[in-house]
UniProtKB/TrEMBL annotation, chains A, B:
Source species taxonomy: Eukaryota, Metazoa, Chordata, Craniata, Vertebrata
PANTHER family: ENOLASE SUPERFAMILY, MANDELATE RACEMASE, MITOCHONDRIAL ENOLASE SUPERFAMILY MEMBER 1
EC number(s) from the headed UniProt entry: 4.2.1.68
Similarity comment text for this entry: Belongs to the mandelate racemase/muconate lactonizing enzyme family. ENOSF1 subfamily.
Gene Ontology MF terms in the entry: L-fuconate dehydratase activity; metal ion binding
SMART domains listed in its UniProt record: MR_MLE
Protein name as it appears in the record: Mitochondrial enolase superfamily member 1
Organism, as annotated: Bos taurus (Bovine)
Entry keyword set: Lyase, Magnesium, Metal-binding
Length: 432, 432
């Protein structure tokens, strides 16, 4: 039984100096320091359980998201957790519709990332109080309750509450078997680790086949066509003609440029090319969809991409979308349009979080692994208390209660920006 | 000649307690305190001129935008103003493409509002150094230089640099006459002051016909259908059948709801219904465009709304778009699609700023007043050093050098949040 009143919300600016090694570099983000606005919720309940929520950022700007979390705090503090999750739709609406804060969103950018961090903490706490990993909390929830977590504002033209319930009801068949299948074999993963844009060729060759990832690979492209051709050729030659290769342009191109560039990379047979252009450009994505372009985006954008048939794969993101609530609506819309969901992950904690969503999706919504896989990047898991468990290139379902969002206390302390030990050293070395 | 190195950037959280009087209330923003993140740029030049930039906000959350301005500051400090405006496209690109900050945007929400505030200050300073009001600086600029301020990323599928130059060149004919026409008669305005959602009927009736605004009116709708019908009937009866009535739903509706609601309000013959649904929903806007729906949005969204023929009027916003630079690209796209631009204004300073853009648009781009007018709201002008001058319901072209962005020093001091005198009193009265 969910209980307790939220007595404290604290938020930390946690940054890992990944830019020092070129990890995570791409055509638009050349020097990312993988970071997070990290929320901790405490209640007055005697169980002493805390909820942890993160949203992923790239270094500079994390302080802006932290500021936005603090702006949202009055909507959470002193609220009863039972009342929050008992009317989760209402709580989500309250958080995203503050009459003054809404102006600086709405439902996008900084404010939305902050919303995700706060809601992720609520979900973590809820799952912990129920003593279940989040995916299992969702799997065991009846359709009506699941759907009551979704705000249908702006999506009823594509998905109504009744349709959502019906999809969930129809997917009850075979649920138990699918849960057993997940527990035995896990959810298939693919890796991007092998080909960050900032990696020299020698590194590219080395990392190709670690940890059982010998089936699917993703390469970052978009900065320089000749270099892309050279690197794609190198990776394609390394993995052979049969294995799956994906590409990611990280919003680098205009629409005509995307079509031209993607035509030139077609010989390396990418399964998809991720984020070819502006994430806001529905019609642009539709125009270039023949080249299999896909992006991690917001609910209203996903709705239109599905309507416009501008996606062949849909990439959810556990922190860019407004937590589990929005991911539920996007998973259900994808099911309605029969588009496979292949989550975006990596960063800090994105793998830890999104595995819960995609495992739930398989068991309770999509009921299929056809053309589906979840991104995996082998970075920074050591900072999490309940890190992902990858076995034979598959995500094994988490068994600990919660949303796997909790970081190790010492990691948070050392990487707090700018006063953690790691940053103090780095900044003093830079003469700041 | 533009000169000087930016030696200081300061930013203030300035809020006006407009919620106390129900001014500015609408279906989504029930208690707005009209506010601004207010940027001041100083240089080491001997002229002592400062650049002032604002972006409009609604109270809570202004501190988040202030935080984002500070995050952008390193891109501005110690830069030579001549080099900034000499490669304005490059500077705009640098500001919007910071490899770490971009993640918490891109080009939307908090970070983009902050970008607008900073760039507005740069334009103000540039115009001041040239000794011209901003509209005149733009009007006198040759097409090639104007176009060099625009970043064409993500819009080349609709507008190329060459097309933009060609539009500007073709509009040279009759420019002098149009400038004289503006100086003599001003740019037509319409008012929203008359019908905020929070106004009682008695107030509605009183404010109907002040300051020469007897031709066009805008009413806020979307919260309650029966009440909307009652209020629209009251206003329509008051103004008679001939005058122009606009409506604004401030994103309140789903797509099917919008169609239904707008059908019921059709008897009052609105010229347009503003922001019927999510600002991200291109296809939704297209679906309901027959009802004349329009919104103030971002460049990539405007591009698609024009492509999808989802707009009959286009409403630019001087602070939601990334300053003059992005407004130039949207004005040129609107010209290409022959869609009339009717700017969004009101708030704090939006009227002061946008008048420059629309006067430039008439003289140098659209060359037409057909179906065109600029919103005007009679609030808070007394806090500006160079307030708008309205004569016979028309914006008279500003004559002072700059972008009319500068606020009175005393107003800023008294309304700083939370330490200005006005807020100290209010907050202590609320027991905070």
């Amino acid at each position: 039984m969910v209980h307790g009143r939220v007595s404290r919300l604290s938020v930390h600016d946690v940054r890992f100096p990944t830019s020092l090694g070129g990890h995570g570099s791409d055509a638009m983000h050349t020097d990312p320091d993988y970071s997070a606005a990290y929320v901790v919720l405490e209640t007055d309940a005697e169980d002493g359980l805390k909820g942890y929520g993160i949203t992923f950022t790239l270094g500079r700007g994390t302080e802006v998201v932290v500021c936005a979390v603090n702006a949202l705090a009055p909507h959470v503090l002193n609220k009863d957790l039972g009342e929050i999750v008992g009317d989760f739709r209402g709580f989500y609406r309250q958080l995203t519709s503050d009459g003054q804060l809404r102006w600086i969103g709405p439902e996008k950018g900084v404010v939305h990332l902050a919303t995700a961090a706060v809601l992720n903490a609520v979900w973590d706490l809820w799952a912990k109080q129920e003593g279940k990993p989040l995916w299992k909390l969702l799997v065991d929830m009846d359709p009506r309750t699941l759907v009551s977590c979704i705000d249908f504002r702006y999506i009823t033209d594509v998905l109504t509450e009744e349709e959502a319930c019906e999809i969930l009801r129809q997917s009850q068949v075979g649920k138990k078997e699918r849960e057993e299948q997940m527990l035995a074999h896990g959810y298939p993963a693919y890796t991007t680790s092998c080909a960050w844009l900032g990696y020299p060729d020698a590194t590219l060759k080395q990392v190709g086949c670690g940890t059982g990832f010998c089936r699917q690979f993703k390469v970052k492209v978009g900065a320089d066509l000749q270099d892309d051709i050279r690197r794609c050729r190198l990776v394609r030659n390394m993995i052979g003609p049969e294995k799956t290769l994906m590409m990611d342009a990280n919003q680098r191109w205009d629409v005509p440029e995307a079509v031209e560039w993607m035509t030139k990379l077609a010989e390396f047979k990418p399964l998809w090319i991720e984020e070819p252009t502006s994430p806001d450009d529905i019609l642009g994505h539709a125009a270039i969809s023949k080249a299999r372009a896909d992006s991690p985006l917001g609910v209203v954008i996903f709705k239109q991409l599905l309507q416009a048939k501008a996606l062949k794969f849909l990439q959810i993101d556990s922190c860019r979308l407004g937590s589990v609530n929005e991911n539920l609506s996007v998973l259900l819309m994808a099911k309605k349009f029969e588009i496979p969901v292949c989550p975006h992950a990596g960063g800090v904690g994105l793998c830890e979080l999104v595995q819960h969503l995609i495992i739930f999706d398989f068991i309770s919504v999509s009921a299929s692994l056809q053309d589906r896989m979840c991104e995996y990047v082998d970075h920074l898991h050591e900072h999490f208390k309940y890190p992902v468990l990858i076995r034979e290139a598959a995500y094994m379902p988490p068994k600990d209660a919660g949303y796997s969002t909790e970081m190790k206390e010492d990691s948070v302390k050392r990487h707090r920006y700018p006063d953690g030990e790691v940053w103090k050293k780095l900044l003093s070395a830079q003469g700041n």
